Amino acid sequence: MLAAAMSGDGKDAMEPGFAAAEIDTSKPHPARMYNAYLGGNDNYPADRAAVRQIVRDFPEVPAIAKANRAFLQRAVQFLAAEAGIRQFIDIGTGIPSAGNVHEVAGRAAPDTRVVYVDNDPIVHVHANALLTGSGTTGIVLADLREPAAILAHSALLELIDFTRPVALLLVAILHFIKDEEDPAGIVATLRDSLPEGSYLALSHGTLDFHPPGDADQAAAGYKNATAPLVLRGRDQVSSFFDGFDLVEPGLVQAPLWRPEGKRPRARDLEKIGIYGGVGRKAPASF
Ligand SMILES: C[S@@+](CC[C@H](N)C(=O)[O-])C[C@H]1O[C@@H](n2cnc3c(N)ncnc32)[C@H](O)[C@@H]1O
Predict the structure, then answer these.
(1) Which of 43, 240, 247, 253 is at a distance of 20 to 30 A from 191, taking alpha carbons?
(2) Atom of ligand 1 nearest to the CA of 72
(3) pTM of this prediction?
(4) What are phi and psi of 184, to 5 degrees?
(5) pLDDT by residue (tens digit) across 137-154?
(6) Pocket test for ligand 1, best of 145, 173, 181, 204 (most atoms within 8 A of CB)
């Protein structure tokens, strides 16, 4: 799979500071584990073993991953079809799977521009293979913890016009950023680069939907997981929307954000520990 995704000399379009040799398939990896939760094929025995271990302790995790992916697609559909957004910056892209951002947005408006950003070389390799030949999508290998470098990246600047509204997607990524790495400051730096009328779509893991007795045990388990997560409560997740006005229905459990068809049943929402929301950048207040 990996070899097929790379160009003949094995170098591909890897950026300075990153090498294909860094792709180690012997260790479980968050992007490939997420791909396994979603039922994808771009994962290896080490990833599947780690997923089996987590699912033994937390059987709800694959359902959370699927609820998150569905939220991403509904949010992009809203942004492209209802809000009229034609430019997306998707940070924390993940390994491409069904219903990628450029596909969902492209159905609403084929000229939509999408820049994918991820710090994982394997995501970069897969995304490059998928996007070859497209003039409206770009892929940037960069780290969310360095937002200024993302904003100054030539591949991003080629596609994104910062005088027109942009949708910034931070979907299932901020829970990988520790408090001491200043996630709120990172979001603020990105927000300040966006013109008024831009949007932020965000999802974030939480323990708020676990029964109280479960939450401590779950917190300890997730902390020891292969990809430790910083699960945050509602107030902290809401604060990432500072400077944005949340659109209806606000910050909610992800399956409840503008569900298609029937409202999910209460029993299908239990332990689905992921918030989702979309906000529109508010006019500057002086
Ligand atoms: C759970 S996946 C989410 C994929 C996609 N946004 C979705 O919701 O379907 C998280 C992605 O974030 C990426 N990621 C994690 N930390 C990152 C960082 N500091 N900078 C850039 N990407 C990061 C991982 O490599 C992975 O591809």
Answers:
(1) 253
(2) 8
(3) 0.91
(4) -65, -40
(5) 999 999 999 999 999 999
(6) 173
Nearest atom within ligand 1 for CA of residue 97 = 9
3-state secondary structure 37-54: HCCCCCCCHHHHHHHHHH
Q: What's the token pair of residue 228? A: 């430790």
Determine the distance separating the centroid of ligand 1 and the alpha carbon of 176, expressed in angstroms: 8
Q: Which of 134, 123, 136, 137 is nearest to 18 (CA)?
A: 123
For the segment 130-189, what is each residue's pLDDT rounded down to a tens digit?
776 567 999 999 999 999 999 999 999 999 999 999 999 999 999 999 999 999 999 999
User: 10 Å Cβ neighbour count for 131?
Assistant: 18
Q: How confident is the model at residue 12 (pLDDT cuts 50, 70, 90)?
A: very low
H or E element that contains 70: helix 61-77
Q: Which of 51, 93, 116 to mutate to test the pocket of ligand 1 (most atoms within 8 A of CB)?
A: 93
Report residue 23: phi and psi, to 5°.
-80, 105
Centre of ligand 1 from the C-alpha of residue 83, in Å: 25
Q: How far is the CA of 215 from the centre of ligand 1 (A)?
A: 24
Strand partners, 204: 275
